[in-house]
Amino acid sequence: MGFGVIVFDESAAPPLKTRELVGWTHATLKKKVGGLPARLIDAGPKLQLWLDAMYKTFPNFCGPDAPADLDDESSYGTDYTIRKEVVYALFASSLEQEAQATSTRYARDFGLSLIMNGKLIRPTGEMIELIDSF
């Protein structure tokens, strides 16, 4: 089992209440995107910055953005689901603390919101407890 984080640009989301916003992120991630795996360039500008920073520590494990020399046994290899407005990253559970800290730092740096551990975390540092989590 892994540790998942949803990262998104709230300014790209429709104006919704918090509970509806969570549903919007889930629905956006479930949408099919063409026939090819999504790439970093398929994300919006802020999410591209976040992904580029994250890839340095947690490289994409599969798909067109995966480095050719990534060791199959690397625990840092991460599975990313990329959409224009939302990214879901699934990290190895053994890296939960590092992934949480790194994801949060870069999200704050690039003005993005996160959903993880049952909380919505805004770039301002505001945390909202959620009943449902991903």
Taken in chain order, the helices and strands follow as EHHEEHEEE
Query: What general outline do the C-alpha atoms trace?
Result: globular
Number of strands: 6
Tell me the fraction of residues in β-strands, as a range: 15-25%
Largest sheet: 6 strands, antiparallel
Structure annotation, total helices: 3
Strand order, largest beta sheet? 2-3-1-4-5-6
- Helical percentage: 25-40%
- Whole-number radius of gyration? 14 Å
Write the layout of secondary structure elements.
Blueprint: E1 2-8, H1 18-30, H2 45-57, E2 79-82, E3 86-92, H3 96-109, E4 113-116, E5 119-121, E6 127-129
Antiparallel strand pairs: 1-3, 1-4, 2-3, 4-5, 5-6
Structure in words:
With 134 residues, this protein is α+β, with helices and mostly antiparallel strands. It has one domain. Helices cover 30% and strands 21% of the residues. It is built from three helices and six strands.
